[in-house]
Amino acid sequence: MSIELIVLDVDGTLTDGKISYTQNGDEIKSFCVKDGLAIASWIKLGKQVAIITGRSSKIVERRAKELGIEHYYQGVHNKQEILETLLKKLDLSMENVASMGDDLNDYVMLKHSKLAYAPQNASSYVKKIATEVLSRNGGDSAVREMIEKLIILEHLEEKYLALWC
Fold this sequence. Notes:
The protein is α/β, with parallel strands linked by helices. Helix content is 39%, strand content 16%. The protein has a single domain (5-162), classed as HAD superfamily/HAD-like (Rossmann fold). Strand 7 (115-118), helix 5 (124-129) and strand 8 form a beta-alpha-beta unit. Helix 1 runs parallel beside helix 6 (142-153).
């Protein structure tokens, strides 16, 4: 059974986990463009991406739209519940899911996913249940690393490279 859906946390996964505020109280997050290119490529290959995050931010909504991510959920307390609802909507099972998260609020979702990835700087508890701990930190191409591993695992290298060659 192939991986059809990647589920991503935001803070500590798509970002370095730091939240900055301006003098006016505006929130600032930084996203890695290398992660973005890999996410956009995964979608171009006909696969799905979802963001499920505990915090809410207009910045996350903007980033999801920029990358063509249709499924993004913010302010979520029970990520597994949201994921199960999404799977029903997409007619998929946990066997089709690769997820990535870095902290305890991702734990249950990661534990139930077919493949679970953790960035290098993830919680030690998350690292213990991860299928693989990546060499990169969250916000520093960890998502790219995961997607390129999935591309190899799914035998999609030729199609992946053809998107850009």
